[in-house]
What does this fold into?
Amino acid sequence: MSVMRLVGKSGFGSMNRSRGFTIVELLIVIVVIAILAAITIVAYNGIQGRAQQSKIDSDIAMLERSIMAARINADRNLFSITQDYTDEHCYNRPSGTNLATLPFTHDCWTKYNRALDRVSAASGIDVRGLKDPWSRPYFFNENEGEGSWAACTKDQIGVYSHPFQTASADVVRELPLFATDC
It folds into this structure.
């Protein structure tokens, strides 16, 4: 009887294995995690796109307000304020150029920043250093007053296409004409 008691207490008679996960259970967990990750990535991309568009809309609205204020305060058109063709040095870059990687000493950046400085000074609204969501300059074209052929052509502001394509910009706003004789 003492032998039976020892067997019962030590557990020699029962199978005492620790329970683990089967391969099927592990595969199910992995599939569920993959599905949740895919849903999260899709949702994140949608949110990121909306955030980029929101930044563009906000920046363009601020740039438009500052240009309009600069034109009124200086009593001149945008071309007279910036004293330059701002768009041509970025707009005419080779297709595929990432404008964000151009050195800040490049004409694209120096003319853009100089124009923003002049608009900021004339308007009293600080738009210096304004960049799109991809860290590139915004597009603006001083059409009105460029020459006799464009005297009554509206100024345009917008964002360069992403990725950059030669001579491609999405014009977001056309500004009303400053001249009253058009």
Observations:
- Residues 20-174 form one domain.
